[in-house]
Amino acid sequence: MRLPDPALVVLVGASGAGKSTWAAARYRAEEVVSSDALRGVLGSGPHDLDASGDAFAVLETVVAARLRRGLTTVVDTLGLDATRRIAWLDAARAGGLPAVAVLLDTPDAECRRRNGARDRPVPAPVLAGQLRSVRDVRAVLDAEGWDLVVRVGAEDTAATPPAAAAAAEPREDRTSSLGLRSVLQVSRFPWDEDPLAWLTDVARAADEAGFAGLALMDHLIQVPQVGRAWDPIPEPWVALGAIAAAGTGLELGTLCTPVTFRPAGVTAKAAATLSALNGGRAFVGIGAGWFEREHAAYGIPFPPARERLDELERAVVTMKALWAAGTKAYDDHGVALPETTSYPRPAGPIPVVVGGSGERRTLRIAARHGDACNLRTTDETELARLVGVLHAHCEDVGRDRSEVAVTVLDLPVVGADRDDVWARVERLRGRTPAATYAARTHAATVDGHRDRWARLAGLGVSTIFIATPDLGSPDDVLALRGLNA
Ligand code: GTP
Ligand code: MG
């Protein structure tokens, strides 16, 4: 069972029930606030009862401060004092965190046995009193208002959480066991001396890690969300041509090409060429464009949104017309072409992914002409709503919703374990508070992201474009392979 995170987690159980062991196997040491440990800090050791008053005062301060910052806090005390439990629960509510009670329901005899084996056992009558209290708490816990009450029985108090799902061999169709395909979006290019080697090594790693494809951003100046204006950002169709030569099984394309950069026919030509070079595995992400600065710098007109959206619709229509069989004239949807002579032919269908979440125009263009619609949110409530809007447009324009795939761009922090996740958050968050940054990037291990991706799949998402904010080397790509199992 996976617990909410961030969250307040209050442990309840007698001495020797396994509370500290359970917490240590699941949380970083800094996240566990333990009365025993604080007795050791403020007194002579974890069992210095004279230091209890000071230890609990500090414990309350630490718990309150962490909850206020929205940080996961595991309270490791006996947990038998109802007044304290309720106060922590209220503090979690005030901090906007879910509150979980974890009852270590270890059999009495086992607690006695473990207690007896300790260097400094709790006196037998004291333990007996604790075990009676646990029995009482067991009866009232459900009624206290916890978001979740977890009972850990003797069988599943294993010291380690379930092993991470083993990375499976990539399946041939590259759909994971979650029913998803994932495409690595490369947005930063720390390639040092050898751009070609870096690009092709990253692509080979993505292939090996079971990704279905690789997407490049299409920008003329690196965007501020990703890096600095003087960071390198390659022209994607040229770079994808080089990547095609690496001979992977990846689909290759952009996310997203602004319609303002090139006449749609030229994008159609680039994609058809890529398709011919890459065994028919090319796609085009296309959007209305938004980064005014790069247009100005490169002498490219940046008309008002309405005109760019008109152009977006014509662009999708134009590309499809040029890729269609034959060379006949085309005249529909505001696009008139006297012929559609385009060679080389694409070696396979070229899906068009319409990017953007504009509800009135962009989603309608996707519904009418797109093969997929890339929604730029991973907030599940917002996503569910946008999928609803997309499907309403499909209904409206008489298109079967199954013909328009839902894709999302996910920008997650992925760590090897809990310590690594938080080390990455600390490194990447800049001036953003840690809890805010962690929430925005869904910071978690591979297993945590898989749980979330399963929910995204449940909302109708079929492909996830993933761009991790700290992708630097092929090894970073290989570390993501568990996502594709
Ligand atoms: P107090 O801090 O005294 O309240 O106890 P606690 O609930 O924190 O128990 P703790 O985690 O320290 O575990 C007590 C003893 O039981 C330790 O020696 C652990 O190694 C052992 N133990 C904890 N969980 C398990 C388990 O799942 N299986 C086995 N075999 N031993 C366990
Ligand atoms: Mg303990």
UniProtKB/TrEMBL annotation:
<keyword id="KW-0560">Oxidoreductase</keyword>
<dbReference type="InterPro" id="IPR027417">
    <property type="entry name" value="P-loop_NTPase"/>
</dbReference>
<protein>
    <submittedName>
        <fullName>LLM class flavin-dependent oxidoreductase</fullName>
    </submittedName>
</protein>
<dbReference type="InterPro" id="IPR050172">
    <property type="entry name" value="SsuD_RutA_monooxygenase"/>
</dbReference>
<dbReference type="InterPro" id="IPR011251">
    <property type="entry name" value="Luciferase-like_dom"/>
</dbReference>
<keyword id="KW-0288">FMN</keyword>
<dbReference type="Pfam" id="PF13671">
    <property type="entry name" value="AAA_33"/>
</dbReference>
<dbReference type="InterPro" id="IPR036661">
    <property type="entry name" value="Luciferase-like_sf"/>
</dbReference>
<dbReference type="Pfam" id="PF00296">
    <property type="entry name" value="Bac_luciferase"/>
</dbReference>
<keyword id="KW-0285">Flavoprotein</keyword>
<feature type="domain" description="Luciferase-like">
    <location>
        <begin position="194"/>
        <end position="459"/>
    </location>
</feature>
<keyword id="KW-0503">Monooxygenase</keyword>
